[in-house]
Every structure is written in C-alpha cells, then in structure tokens.
C-alpha cells in the first residue's frame, strides 16, 4: 500500500507538470508564436486567453503587441546646400505579423538593430537630398515683425517646396517599404532635434554677433548724427538769441544815450556860460578816462584839450 501511494503521488506530480507545461496564458498586450524544435508551427496566437501546446516539445515565444519605442543616435549629415548638421530622430513601431517577425528577426533586439539600419539610412538620404531650410521649416508662414532691429535684419524668409513634415512622411513611407517583409510596421517617425555641428555653430554665432554689432554701430552713428544736429541747432538758436539780445541792448543804450544827450542839451544849452561849463566838464571826463601818470600825448596848439592844459599850467 505504501509503495502504491508513492507511485500515485509521482504519477500525479508528473501529470501536473505535464499539464502546466502544456498550458500558457496570452495577455492583452502579448502575442505568441509556437515553435517546435526551434521552428514555428501553426499560426501565431494574437487573441488573449488560455491556450495549449505540446509539453516539453513545443515552446511559446511571447512578443509585445503594443507600440514600441525606437530612439536613434544623433548623426552628422551634410544637407544638399553643404550645411553639416546633427540630426536626432525617434520613431514608434509595432509587430504586425508575429510569425514573419519571428522568422526574420527572432526577437525585439534584432528588430531594433534592423530599424537602426533602415531609419538612419533613410534619414541620411532624405536630409542629404534637401536644403537645410527644408528640414527646419514646415510652412511658408512669414514671421511677424518684432521691432526696428528685426526690420533691419530682414524678416523675409526663403520659400520652401517640401518642408519638414513632408520629409518625415517620406522617410516613414520609405522605411515601411523596407520593413514590409519583416513583420513590423513603423507607425510614426519624427525629427526630434536638428542642430549645427560645433564648427558651423561657432560660425553662425559669430555671424549673428557681427550682424548685431553692425546694427549697434548704425544706431550709434545715427545717434551721434542726431546729437550733432541738435547741438548745431542749439548753437544756432543761442547765437540768434544772443544777437537779438545784443541788438536790443544796443538799441536801448542808443535810446538812453539819446535821451541823456537831450537832457544834457536842455540843461547846458540855456546860456553861453552853461555851454562853456558843459564843454569843460566833458573835457575833464575825457582827461579822466584817457590820461594817467604814464600817458604821453602830442597835441596841436589849436586842440581843445591843449587849451585846458595850457590854461591849467
């Protein structure tokens, strides 16, 4: 009895192992290819649920049903107009025929390697066959002016014929033509980033700096010209004001001298003695303003000044 129980337990254990080896569960995110001695048998299992296989002989190979990510390495590519740029790309792909996928690529690592060759090659070909502006711009939309500086630099852009979105679509189409017999499909492709190589980027920055310096010099020269014009107008207005003030002052002094002369005339022209007094006083004023102890003069004998000097001696 004891030996029979042990045998029964062994049989049940082996039956359990055999049963577990023949059952596999397919998740909603998975698809399965059954292989026998390394070769696929039957159709791929793509519907979720409980499934059976021959234990110990057949193997269930699980593959992802969802979209998978492909991230390319940045590559240095020359454009049609000889501009060297780094192009960074990414894509999304899916296993659409798991049986063909297993036959051609075996696993997802092999698919990633094959996509590297296909997508990098197509990207290089299409970028090299178009100018840089075609890979950067999407439409012929004209930018809005942002001020005087942008107007000086120039807002008009070169017209594009293809554009970035169409280049991406052409790369996607060309890639899918090559992956058609691999059991996979590239669902989406994008140019993630485009940038100049270091040498070209330095040249672009230097050109941008020189352009800004040129604009700054133009503003500076225009400012200096405007300052000179303002200073010239200021000097002209100042001289005009000074001239008008001097003329008005002279007119006032002339009128004052005339009025003073009239007053003197009325005061000293009343008699012969007053006129003589006036002449004497004016002569004394002339002496006071003209002569000092260092002055030497030569006078004729009929000079009015000589008369007073002779009289004083």
Outline of this structure?
This protein is of the alpha+beta class. Helices cover 56% and strands 18% of the residues. The chain contains nine helices and nine strands.
What does this structure look like?
This protein is of the alpha+beta class. Helices cover 56% and strands 18% of the residues. It has 9 helices and 9 strands. The strands form 3 sheets. Strands 6, 7, 8 and 9 form a 4-stranded antiparallel β-sheet that branches. It has a 3-stranded antiparallel β-sheet with strand order 3-2-5. Strand 7 (75-78) and strand 8 (84-95) form a beta hairpin. The chain is rod-shaped, with a radius of gyration of 54 Å. The model has no long low-confidence stretch (mean pLDDT 84).
């Amino acid at each position: 009895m004891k030996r029979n129980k042990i045998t029964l337990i062994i049989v049940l254990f082996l039956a359990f192992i055999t049963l577990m080896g023949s059952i596999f569960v397919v998740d909603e995110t998975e698809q399965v290819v059954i292989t026998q001695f390394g070769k696929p048998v039957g159709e791929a299992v793509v519907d979720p649920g409980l499934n059976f296989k021959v234990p110990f002989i057949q193997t269930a190979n699980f593959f992802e049903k969802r979209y998978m990510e492909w991230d390319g390495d940045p590559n240095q590519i020359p454009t049609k107009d000889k501009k060297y740029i780094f192009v960074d790309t990414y894509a999304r792909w899916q296993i659409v025929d798991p049986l063909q996928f297993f036959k051609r690529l075996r696993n997802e690592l092999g698919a990633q390697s094959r996509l590297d060759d296909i997508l990098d090659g197509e990207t290089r070909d299409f970028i090299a066959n178009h100018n840089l502006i075609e890979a950067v711009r999407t439409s012929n939309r004209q930018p809005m002016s942002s001020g005087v500086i942008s107007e000086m630099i120039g807002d008009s852009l070169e017209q594009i014929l293809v554009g970035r979105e169409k280049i991406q679509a052409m790369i996607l189409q060309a890639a899918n033509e090559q992956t058609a017999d691999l059991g996979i499909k590239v669902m989406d492709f994008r140019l993630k980033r485009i940038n100049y190589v270091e040498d070209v980027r330095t040249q672009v920055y230097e050109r941008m700096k020189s352009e800004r310096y040129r604009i700054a010099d133009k503003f500076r020269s225009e400012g200096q010209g405007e300052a000179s014009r303002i200073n010239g107008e200021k000097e002209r207005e100042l001289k005009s004001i000074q001239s008008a003030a001097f003329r008005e002052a002279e007119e006032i002094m002339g009128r004052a001298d005339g009025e003073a002369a009239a007053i003197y005339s009325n005061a000293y022209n009343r008699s012969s003695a007053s006129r003589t007094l006036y002449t004497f006083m004016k002569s004394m004023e002339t002496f006071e303003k003209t002569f000092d102890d260092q002055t030497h003069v030569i006078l004729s004998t009929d000079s009015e000044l000589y008369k007073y000097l002779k009289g004083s001696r």
